[in-house]
Amino acid sequence: MTLGFIDISDEVSQALAEGAGVVALETTLVAHGFPGQEGLDVALESERQVRSTGAVPATVGVVDGRAVVGLSPGQLEQFTGRSTMAKLGPRDIASCLASGEMGATTVGGTLAVCAAVGISFMGTGGIGGVHRGFAETLDISADLGQIARTRAMVVSSGAKSLLDVAATAELLETLGVPVLGWRTRSLPRFYTSKGGPAVSATVDSAEQAARTAQLHWELAGPAGLVLGQAPPRDLDIEPLMEEAVAAVTASGVKGQAVTPAVLSYLHEASAGETVSLNKELIAANARLAGEVAVAYAKLHAD
Ligand code: PSU
Ligand code: MN
């Protein structure tokens, strides 16, 4: 289906028309989050996990100036390991469409497209947030503002621990975003379930998560929620994380380039350990997003 500047795959448009569960997935982690081929493996595995729940995956990216919802495997390959490709936050999409180029959407960028087509669930690794040292740089991910104004639930392993996770949770509260813990009372910190700030509420089932989202949307309209799931295992890399953030800052990297630079520093310095866990947690979040999307579709079918 074609909607102005957006191409929606047949599978996704059919699912949307039927009110079936649909889960959006982003492409920034495919292009910038993983070395080489691994981004493609993660993307395809996430799609498989979503399908295993009965929901339909809708991976989003901009191809030749068109926003595509439901990229084909061939299109996904074009995003794989392309660290020089444009990284599209919410404010970057229109320029990319106008220039006819390709671009990988972040969580915020993906949500902006979700808002345009009516997708209410998304799975990712970790949301962007308030960076360490924000008082100096004011570097705060556009993910947060977009989550606040999009009628969608984002399932993640909390906020990436390269950030100031406590400050991120504070800002989410300020923005009125419910931060739900999946069977946990604290917001996971990406590579670890430990040491995070308190969540605003805990949910124990997909039905409860879906019902909470439904009520929040009835109450607040176009406003998002975060559902934080602990990573499948814990990796305590705090000293390495401090080293990575310091090295990237010292090298003069700024703005959108910070997150991918820190992730790739960690991937190398941990001899791939962070890569494996990063892959596992993204797949697990895609699956949970699928389960909640299906539970939400059932609420509506009743
Ligand atoms: N989660 C991952 N890997 C990533 C990201 C999230 O496991 O690469 C990306 C997401 O696209 C997120 C972005 O939206 O990092 C945040 O970037 P920034 O801090 O520049 O807003
Ligand atoms: Mn930033």
What does this structure look like?
With 302 residues, the chain is of the alpha/beta class. The protein has a single domain, classed as Indigoidine synthase domain (Indigoidine synthase fold, 3-Layer(aba) Sandwich), CATH 3.40.1790. It has helices at 10-18, 28-33, 38-52, 73-79, 93-99, 107-117, 134-137, 142-149, 165-174, 206-220, 238-250, 258-269, 273-301; strands at 2-3, 6-8, 22-25, 56-63, 66-69, 86-88, 103-105, 121-123, 153-156, 179-182, 201-203, 225-228. Strands 1, 2, 3, 4, 5, 6, 7, 8, 9, 10, 11 and 12 form a twelve-stranded mixed beta sheet that branches. Strand 6 (86-88), helix 5 and strand 7 (103-105) form a beta-alpha-beta unit. It is globular and about 50 Å long. It starts with a strand and ends with a helix. The site of pseudouridine-5'-monophosphate has 21 residues, from helix 2, helix 6, helix 8, helix 12 and helix 13.
Topology summary:
Elements: E1 2-3, E2 6-8, H1 10-18, E3 22-25, H2 28-33, H3 38-52, E4 56-63, E5 66-69, H4 73-79, E6 86-88, H5 93-99, E7 103-105, H6 107-117, E8 121-123, H7 134-137, H8 142-149, E9 153-156, H9 165-174, E10 179-182, E11 201-203, H10 206-220, E12 225-228, H11 238-250, H12 258-269, H13 273-301
Parallel strand pairs: 2-5, 3-4, 3-8, 6-7, 8-9, 9-12, 10-11, 10-12
Antiparallel strand pairs: 1-2, 4-5, 4-7
Bound molecules: pseudouridine-5'-monophosphate and manganese (II) ion.
The site of pseudouridine-5'-monophosphate (PSU) has 21 residues, from helix 2, helix 6, helix 8, helix 12 and helix 13.
What labels would you give this structure?
about 50% helix; binds manganese (II) ion; 12-stranded mixed beta sheet; globular; alpha/beta
